[in-house]
Amino acid sequence: xxxxxxxxxxxxxxxxxxxxxxxxxxxxxxxxxxxxxxxxxxxxxxxxxxxxxxxxxxxxxxxxxxxxxxxxxxxxxxxxxxxxxxxxxxxxxxxxxxxxxxxxxxxxxxxxxxxxxxxxxxxxxxxxxxxxxxxxxxxxxxxxxxxxxxxxxxxxxxxxxxxxxxxxxxxxxxxxxxxxxxxxxxxxxxxxxxxxxxxxxxxxxxxxxxxxxxxxxxxxxxxxxxxxxxxxxxxxxxxxxxxxxxxxxxxxxxxxxxxxxxxxxxxxxxxxxxxxxxxxxxxxxxxxxxxxxxxxxxxxxxxxxxxxxxxxxxxxxxxxxxxxxxxxxxxxxxxxxxxxxx
Amino acid sequence: xxxxxxxxxxxxxxxxxxxxxxxxxxxxxxxxxxxxxxxxxxxxxxxxxxxxxxxxxxxxxxxxxxxxxxxxxxxxxxxxxxxxxxxxxxxxxxxxxxxxxxxxxxxxxxxxxxxxxxxxxxxxxxxxxxxxxxxxxxxxxxxxxxxxxxxxxxxxxxxxxxxxxxxxxxxxxxxxxxxxxxxxxxxxxxxxxxxxxxxxxxxxxxxxxxxxxxxxxxxxxxxxxxxxxxxxxxxxxxxxxxxxxxxxxxxxxxxxxxxxxxxxxxxxxxxxxxxxxxxxxxxxxxxxxxxxxxxxxxxxxxxxxxxxxxxxxxxxxxxxxxxxxxxxxxxxxxxxxxxxxx
Amino acid sequence: xxxxxxxxxxxxxxxxxxxxxxxxxxxxxxxxxxxxxxxxxxxxxxxxxxxxxxxxxxxxxxxxxxxxxxxxxxxxxxxxxxxxxxxxxxxxxxxxxxxxxxxxxxxxxxxxxxxxxxxxxxxxxxxxxxxxxxxxxxxxxxxxxxxxxxxxxxxxxxxxxxxxxxxxxxxxxxxxxxxxxxxxxxxxxxxxxxxxxxxxxxxxxxxxxxxxxxxxxxxxxxxxxxxxxxxxxxxxxxxxxxxxxxxxxxxxxxxxxxxxxxxxxxxxxxxxxxxxxxxxxxxxxxxxxxxxxxxxxxxxxxxxxxxxxxxxxxxxxxxxxxxxxxxxxxxxxxxxxxxxxx
Amino acid sequence: xxxxxxxxxxxxxxxxxxxxxxxxxxxxxxxxxxxxxxxxxxxxxxxxxxxxxxxxxxxxxxxxxxxxxxxxxxxxxxxxxxxxxxxxxxxxxxxxxxxxxxxxxxxxxxxxxxxxxxxxxxxxxxxxxxxxxxxxxxxxxxxxxxxxxxxxxxxxxxxxxxxxxxxxxxxxxxxxxxxxxxxxxxxxxxxxxxxxxxxxxxxxxxxxxxxxxxxxxxxxxxxxxxxxxxxxxxxxxxxxxxxxxxxxxxxxxxxxxxxxxxxxxxxxxxxxxxxxxxxxxxxxxxxxxxxxxxxxxxxxxxxxxxxxxxxxxxxxxxxxxxxxxxxxxxxxxxxxxxxxxx
Lengths: 342, 342, 342, 342
Known about the structure:
The structure is a homotetramer.
Chain A: H1 5-8, H2 24-30, H3 35-52, E1 56-62, H4 72-80, E2 86-89, H5 91-102, E3 108-109, H6 116-121, E4 124-127, E5 130-133, H7 134-149, E6 154-156, H8 158-172, H9 178-184, E7 189-190, H10 198-210, E8 215-217, H11 219-231, E9 235-241, H12 244-259, E10 269-274, H13 288-293, E11 302-306, H14 309-323, H15 335-341
Parallel strand pairs in A: 1-2, 1-9, 2-7, 6-8, 9-10, 10-11
Antiparallel strand pairs in A: 3-5, 4-5
Helix pairs in contact in A: 2-3, 3-14, 5-7, 7-10, 8-9, 11-12
């Protein structure tokens, strides 16, 4: 069967709106049940605790194809309503998916059984059951190059670069984007493996053109800045969607603070929604109790929930949104700390 | 830390009520997203199609610790509202969990990190994060013996025995039970591996006492009866929670019909909610497309959803309940066929 | 692409021979490593302990598509060399796969990406990457009917029927079969869900023809017989490949013995090779420590290994074979107990 | 139960030696079987093809806790025998685990059920069933700081820094290390998320002390260098252990080359050993066929094997080692390209 590109890129992925359904009764029922429903309910209660704890800075960690799957609006709501204060993410989510959509491009409903050879010929990229027009992605790559070209040569943290991306969307954005929303709310976004994204392509092109006058993305600076936030926060809570580098990176700030001579407490709260398990010893699925042995996550208020993010993240976010504890939270605007420094 | 039995068996598991929350807006959003949320939405639409198809007999397959986890009331609602016509289940769900609760016993909220040695000393059985008083289970075992003792010697299908259990609850029941509800609605319940349950204990005791005058559970008769239902149904749809023996057994009826010389169609619709995957070649995780090669499940209206039942079964059931297509469905009362035969 | 049946059923699955490679050095290395390699090594050492414990009866539990995948010869070697004393299995392994091959039929190397619609038209059944000629399977179904037809009416345990299948192969077998080998060695094989197999088809046909003069498969009798073996064994060890009904059934014998008034000890040793995990509360993936809370499996000498059976079962079996502890083991010939009774 | 630190850190993890057992007969048997054993055999054959293809540059990708689990010696053998030409890894494997051992420290056999609170008090870090003395890790952190302090200020690729680490071990090393071995053989090692490791701690300390005179780790430079290798290779093959950032990063080089105006072919061969699956749409478990739609991996000579690395990587590596095709391979010494440039 021959595909037609237009036919394949017809139905756009739409982002779920947590304001339009109230998960509180469901989660309250889950709390009286067992297995992952109860684990999910417990994680909702822990998130509630974080939101009510005035001393707690909340760090959202993102890994997996979350925005392409329709979860962008959730992240935007969390930002808008002061429900998180910092984001640590993979590059793909921030650049290839969110910034990409901010530029006006879309993800499309596809199907798993597609013939990948034919898709390639049509320049359509597949993520499980989702399609992307590769031509759009190339525009996204080149936009990051354009942003890099406009910057003063030097070593930047990914946070600084992503802030520039938000600024770019402020002027040129065509659709909702959490990068843009974070820019407005001065919320720092860190990508510890930033080159591993569409921005990597743009930056490689930038460096190969500008040579000595190019910018660099210094991941050590990222680590330094995130540690500074940790040091300046009385307590911290982690809301982790998936594992990967963001999970490891943010946990490590406790140790980094210690090395810098600051006695920072462990992360007081920690939630992870994941499909990974602990049995291969890899970090993505390692339990939060294991993290306690490393002195990174406190025990007692931590919870792993085993499930796929597109189903369970909306429930958790809707619960917390409708509980309205965020109404009493103050915005932190951590990006301002760094603005004042430079 | 020493446990105290009373302390450990304090908080009862409560069963979720799908009437109390409406999953339609959530599922409609999921349908426009990706990954398992969209798979779940698609399975909801297929279940809707089954309910609207007047020629379709709907078979519910149950595996895993569903009732102990708080999903009993869902199954009761599906029965009450003519949303299913036949049940195929593991013995543990039917006897150890549902009938057990019908006798007035409970499951309790426990925790995964419990010391299993101490639990054993206290006669507390653990299922992941749930506790059971083993003394209660022993009463359940003995009740099945009592039922067997009251029956005329001979070979019975599990369906016949479970019907007797429903009758027992009609007189002696102390709490809601889907075995009881199915008894009232003449819905057949099959357990192809019936001895592999609390009833097995009772029946072993029964046989060892009664010897020649005991009853037997003939699993061939089960297969014959279920095939008869298949043969008498124009079309069939499968709603499978978990895999295991029920999944295999119900799929096999198509072949069994064929062997009996009846040209029964493949199952027209099929949904499976599961955490298993296909990579070890075991049946529980085998795709429904694979079942198509066997001539068991038709292609086109089948869907696997990868997720844990306590989270996703309530969403699917609530969606179908609130769609109200069941209002036009007629009850099948298949148990009556067999009553008339005997 | 159109398939041709002959082309698709060209290359036979061949069964691995544990005598032809020595896994001892590999397992000894694994023992000094981590994660699943060390878990596998530990399970090998526990199996060794079972083989050296003169009071220990070893029960092999089988679930998943093991024989179609090339593991038949391993089971045969375990039987031949007195490395196991009892088998509890799913019906599919015993009838559709092993007995099927004993009749001279084969499984074929296939591929996952096959078009299942076309396979169905060609009467080819697929198990992941393996093909079966459905015509051969139908012969297998009918052979079980023939065996049933030849038996005196009455209620039989699956063990008795499978013993008859072994007898049939003794006369008519065309290829190696563990059902046949167990027949020779008087090793009982139990299938608690026996109808859920190719034999189910034959038996349904048998009963629909013979009506009052037919045989029944009484799964309670299975449970009673297996419990009798448990009661007659000083100690027991479980070697479980996969989970499902066999795992539950064999564990339950401890409780069944208790109910019959016999104070049987818990299973002293227990190994499970599985891909399932505990997070959905289902039995297949429940930990052996959880089984300890139920008083079924002793703690200390139990081990779960997370891995796929085709890779890790050959390593475990080869290790035990080459260690040669089985040379001092005596055969138990449990089938003789039951012969004498009847 | 109170632990004693000395008791807990008693038994060192030992690294498996693929020269000491020959996996060829096992893999040849696996090739005639099904499921993951056959997938593993197929991946071995593909790796063989890579080794025999004179135009093929082989890139090893590493993610997960591989060295702490006893797989270090395998990587060293692959380097020594010209079986790989480039390494892309997580920072933890390179710094916290391999370089750490090169400094003379060890990983220890631990256990999963350890009390993590007590471990933390004893400064023992746990990875599933493995223990680490946190004091040793701190020395490792500080050693990376010392190396950074000794370098000329500027922006470096992780490859350059890791080369310095190899140089450090050349003088000060106390035990085998693949970082050291790669240094000797001029094999480039890339860590796209380098700060996410013990080196991150050292570098944060370094930057906070040296401020303007510090070094930066420019991950764009990594991407540029790896792309340069891709561009300079006629064909490429990927041997991926785990997923994560290394998998994504190395696949992206095809696109990066394209953006730089070079028409580089897709990766011709690709193998991934992983426990992840595709169902959550995350990259770690995405199929290699999906990568084909992106134009990154060619179809035909790609294979996913689902299994845990400690069990299956030794089998694959031993097979390839004993096949001896590497004897005809020439060393590539890619680090020399970059030396000549600078």
